[in-house]
Description:
By secondary structure, chain A is of the alpha/beta class. Chain A contains 22 helices and 20 strands. Chain B has helices at residues 7-23, 27-51, 63-84, 108-134, 137-142, 149-177, 190-213, 225-254, 259-283, 296-318, 338-345, 351-362, 368-376, and strands spanning 91-95, 104-107. The longest helix of chain B is centred in the middle third of the chain and has 30 residues, at 225-254.
Amino acid sequence: xxxxxxxxxxxxxxxxxxxxxxxxxxxxxxxxxxxxxxxxxxxxxxxxxxxxxxxxxxxxxxxxxxxxxxxxxxxxxxxxxxxxxxxxxxxxxxxxxxxxxxxxxxxxxxxxxxxxxxxxxxxxxxxxxxxxxxxxxxxxxxxxxxxxxxxxxxxxxxxxxxxxxxxxxxxxxxxxxxxxxxxxxxxxxxxxxxxxxxxxxxxxxxxxxxxxxxxxxxxxxxxxxxxxxxxxxxxxxxxxxxxxxxxxxxxxxxxxxxxxxxxxxxxxxxxxxxxxxxxxxxxxxxxxxxxxxxxxxxxxxxxxxxxxxxxxxxxxxxxxxxxxxxxxxxxxxxxxxxxxxxxxxxxxxxxxxxxxxxxxxxxxxxxxxxxxxxxxxxxxxxxxxxxxxxxxxxxxxxxxxxxxxxxxxxxxxxxxxxxxxxxxxxxxxxxxxxxxxxxxxxxxxxxxxxxxxxxxxxxxxxxxxxxxxxxxxxxxxxxxxxxxxxxxxxxxxxxxxxxxxxxxxxxxxxxxxxxxxxxxxxxxxxxxxxxxxxxxxxxxxxxxxxxxx
Amino acid sequence: xxxxxxxxxxxxxxxxxxxxxxxxxxxxxxxxxxxxxxxxxxxxxxxxxxxxxxxxxxxxxxxxxxxxxxxxxxxxxxxxxxxxxxxxxxxxxxxxxxxxxxxxxxxxxxxxxxxxxxxxxxxxxxxxxxxxxxxxxxxxxxxxxxxxxxxxxxxxxxxxxxxxxxxxxxxxxxxxxxxxxxxxxxxxxxxxxxxxxxxxxxxxxxxxxxxxxxxxxxxxxxxxxxxxxxxxxxxxxxxxxxxxxxxxxxxxxxxxxxxxxxxxxxxxxxxxxxxxxxxxxxxxxxxxxxxxxxxxxxxxxxxxxxxxxxxxxxxxxxxxxxxxxxxxxxxxxxxxxxxxxxxxxxxxxxxxxxxxxxxxxxxxxxxxxxxxxxxxx
Lengths: 549, 377
């Protein structure tokens, strides 16, 4: 049977780029297939997806070679506008792809461009509203929608042209887990109920591998042509590629065949594994010891309200030097408000916030930020200097510190930024920019560091590197507070977890106990073993080493 | 999104209220216009609220901002005029005459004139703000002729980006403050401006990509075959029309005694331009989804607003002095003509049907949500 998408020996150079973004890539996708495209950051996934509707090369310029055919049409020859009826492309950031004010206008935009008559537009909008279960959003302003709702509207906005292929470029990378789940459920429904062909790229494989028909792995472009991509059933591909969700990593450690794609499958294999016959390890001594040093950050029965709406209600907690505390909870639970109180941007309406023992009400913002560094969700809001070195010097200058010196060199080395000191931070990759933002936050040598959703948009390798870095900082005595939805990162690096809901702390305790106890806020490994001693892949590896001895 | 009136009704309200506000400095009339605008805005807000909290326009929070800016302008204008103008009979104090500009008597009339100028600006802002919040900006921009739809769409998208940009400014400012930066002096704005511009550019590229992927460039005309010939005719009509209007206007200005030739040229030029725009619209591939509904209440309100506009313009054409008020040389109570008062009161007409509808909705007698659905189509 003729494949719906056929890519043959595709090579593409961005204008002025030293090397190709794609080199001799080949891939075929059958009609009705749900294909997951995986690869490290910078491997060229977005470029490959954009070649399917002609944005590459029509929008970006550059040189293209090889053949691409989608539903019998060549996007390079046909152009993006003509391909919009065949390929619907949805992007990462739901905010950046909206053109109208209301949901209905957004859905109509592509059809207006195609010059469809009004009765047909009305019919298709009704169909899409029902297919995506977003009829209740019809009259809403886009600015009032949640991230998940916006992304579903973005999917609807391309489906109104009834394309043969839906292409999505990391559509959940900017979303919290619940919103990501909404979007993925929608895609599964579209694929299964309508037989729509879907090509999806995604970093968080654990969210999606159980839903897809095949995985294709795109390695970074090298000097030799890539050739046909390694593609096949998810379990087969996961057995060989370097990017692994935690469950697959554990399965590979334990030599489980086939690689399980869901907790349900993994539990079956665990039950058959004699190494885990009810003799799982307990917590190692010392892991639950209390740190008795004075707290770097402390809140005492803190209340805060925006206008009349209470955002925090009697929050009490303490963060010791060397401790990594993770704040978790749904959107709107109060995590970001608590971070803003800890860094002095907001002052409590009741209760006290203490930074190194001093009440933030009596400190100026300058005095607080000397003690507390802050890294925002998007590093781009911070970076403005021409070089990485100037970026650090700017923070130090704000605190009347000399621009350079051994402390700065040590920080650059610790964050693996020494080779980028003279580069423009805006030209670096997402992970590198995140590290520069971290360096900017740490340049004033604060005793505490606060991070808001630090892993958003990162792949597994970048996340692991950030995790190692934060552990090193904590080992040097810094108190670290993360507001995050990323349970895997929390499992890897947090000492304590505070679960927040409706402005209150619901649970506060040792990370392992909280994660092993929770059904929702639990890592994949924790969901599998339900044992506070086994919450990360490293725990399983250590356990295997012990039983081998 | 609940839209109280058809875009044309809102435009008529803007014309009627805006014309009156620009014609006078009589504080009684200005206050009357402001009260009418406030009544309309309150009624529209209550209508949106009744339709559901999600339907309310988040820009409504900007009303307070409008007022603050207006009051600041009025204060500054009163101060400047009071210190700079030395006319008027009621002297408050006299500054030494050798002081440049401000030396001389400072009078109540001088400060009052300045404050009235400021009040006039405040009222114009209130009228503009009410229109901006009441009318559906997206529908307004999409309602312009098909030939100019690209420009209208780009403007609409630009406006949709304003709230996002405001949020981004706040994020950047906070993030830089948390690095210890103090925003003092013009050079200190660099850490705000660079991330804002860089981020804005990046988002603009992402948006352009998303629009392109949804066939935006299909809107442009196809310069092949018959279309290419039509484009040549249109280009000729645009050039000829513009030239005729320019030459006609020149003749009208310099040969006032014989205006017929100039007026005929201007008219012919305008007709040519109109034809060119219409023809350009026919060449465009685009279609429109939105069909705004003209309801009975639109008709009623438009009758009232037309009457108000007729009174305003009619009085200005026949009794221009009735609109004029000046506190110089001796401060006196401003005059009030009942016919002008009645005309201005009609500016509040859009509030009445909305109040009735909102009350019915709150009593559960009328399903506004159902009506809202109709509004959008």
